[in-house]
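Recall from the previous lesson that a structure prediction takes nothing but the amino acid sequence as input. Here we apply that procedure to Pimeloyl-ACP methyl ester carboxylesterase from Thermosporothrix hazakensis. The sequence below is the only information supplied.
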Amino acid sequence: MTKPRSAFVNTEIIRLHYLEWDSSLTAQTAPGEIGESAEDNIPLVLLHGLSATANTWQLVAQHLYHKHLVIAFDLRGHGLSEQPEAGYDLVTVAEDVVHGMAALGLGQVALVGHGWGARVALVLAARHPALVSHLVLVDCPHVEPRHWPGMTHDRFIRASEKGPDRHYASLNHFLEAMKAEMEVFWSPEIENIILSYVQQLPDGSVEERLQREHGRQIRESLWEDRALLYYSKLSCPVLLVPAAPEPKPDGDPPERLETAAEFAAAKGYMAAQVARAIRRCSVLWMPGANHDIQLQHPQTLAQAVASFVAEL
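The prediction returns the following tokens.
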């Protein structure tokens, strides 16, 4: 697996860490890779999900960098980027990316976001349409949490206490928990990626790099944000990639969100709803996929992104 260049960019707002892949890193295209040269092609900017890091795109980038310059940022409070006490709302994080792109000399890009990062990408594309040629939203929580079946403010905010930002007694405990969630597609490469999400403390315990308070601020922002207002403002082509089956035309959305199947069905209905509000939209349905599509199906996702970006 080709190693990306790891670097930092200092903007007037924040210091961001990023990974960069480009075709100069290798002289040959490996079998099954996409394209032959990154020259003159639109750059790709990849935004990770909540509590993850730029490393989450390692497997996808392997299939893309021969044809595109690929940049993945550690977003505010994540990975090796700066961790200010405030500024974790979607608009501020999106503006961080805009400033980071400008500092790197990037003009128009194709923007790919996963999960919470997809919501950041959505805000960026709506606020700065001239900067985004194509937008890819990977398993994006399209509809505001307040509209999820049975969801309340307290339940949504407290979900972070039960989520992946828990404190683990040891590195082995952390890896065992992650393996249980990703057993079907776990690999040594994925283990290395997941390890970038956490830090080991002097007592041997492990915690997420994203601080709990910053995660709470992010969830508060997601609760208050009005995502549905953005979709009609998008002027670029959009590809939705939900980890969900395509809903049946005569079916009904689930009345509650308790099981994995109910969450997947709800995501399908949400994706179908917002697709109708976007002027130029296509959907790649991924039934049975884990939320971390970029880890479970990296080549499928990369092929979809490459084909989509190649379209005029």
